[in-house]
Amino acid sequence: MSTVVLLAITGLGLGALYFLVASGLSLIYGLMGVLNFAHGSFLTLGAFAGWEIARRTGADSWVTFLLSLVLGAAVGAVMAALTEFLLVRRLYERHIEQVLVTVGLGLATVALFEGIWGTDPVFITGPAWLEQTTSIAGARIPNDRFMVIFVAVLVLLAIVAFLKFTRFGLIIRAGVENRSMVTALGIDVRKAFTLVFAVGGAAAGLGGVLASHFFGYVSPLLGGSLLIFAFIVTVIGGLGSLTGAAIASVAVALLQQFANFYAGGTGDLAVVLALAVVLLTRPSGLLGKKA
């Protein structure tokens, strides 16, 4: 029983990380039709920014941890906004060019991060509570799992509230439905779309800081490894569906954890097979709109 509880809660924590990355991907594609293959770079830069705060302050306190979350989100948002403003804005409706540019940016930033911080993983510590465990039904659960789950739920609620109850959220949803009409009313939709990228980048930056504590290290390849599963989650949940991304994140992470433990480390294979089944039986994903 304790093993099942440990795998389940650890899977929920991993699913929360997947959602923090996939939420940005799903949001950007659903509202703007852009597949951003450089999204993992926002996560990696956020993780390194959080680590730099911890390294320079020399304190594993809650204040430092909260500052690292804020800085990680801010750095991810700024990098995402610059990516949209300088590169993607000129490539709307040109999907092949979008893929080429964002893939190239992703590869270039990995090389840049390796040049700045090196190729070896950098190990990180946080507040004492995050390093400790909590006993639930005989299972000792690392506390950082609870923190990741808590932040992911907050991000989901915040994004939904932003889109439904704010002026920019209304502009974004209207611009998606009829961009020319909104522009004719004198509203600059481009600024709203830049904000969408920034929101997605902020979620990825938060995910980067939390991922560094979840795995215990930061490396230039951290974002790329999580991006693979975030894309799988986005496709399974349905491209453009935030709720679908949340459900798929949990399902994929739980499947991965249980398959790794009970089926000889075949978690990644099980996830790929699940992706194949969804694509064959429901190509639009669990909650995606049919073309």
TrEMBL record:
Residue intervals passing through the bilayer: 6-27, 34-53, 65-87, 99-117, 146-172, 192-215, 227-254, 261-281
The protein, known as: Branched-chain amino acid ABC transporter permease
Recorded superkingdom: Bacteria
PANTHER family: ABC TRANSPORTER ATP-BINDING PROTEIN, BRANCHED-CHAIN AMINO ACID TRANSPORT SYSTEM PERMEASE PROTEIN LIVH
UniProt keyword terms in alphabetical order: Amino-acid transport, Cell membrane, Membrane, Transmembrane, Transmembrane helix, Transport
Organism, as annotated: Cellulomonas fimi
Entry keyword Nucleus: no
GO cellular component: plasma membrane
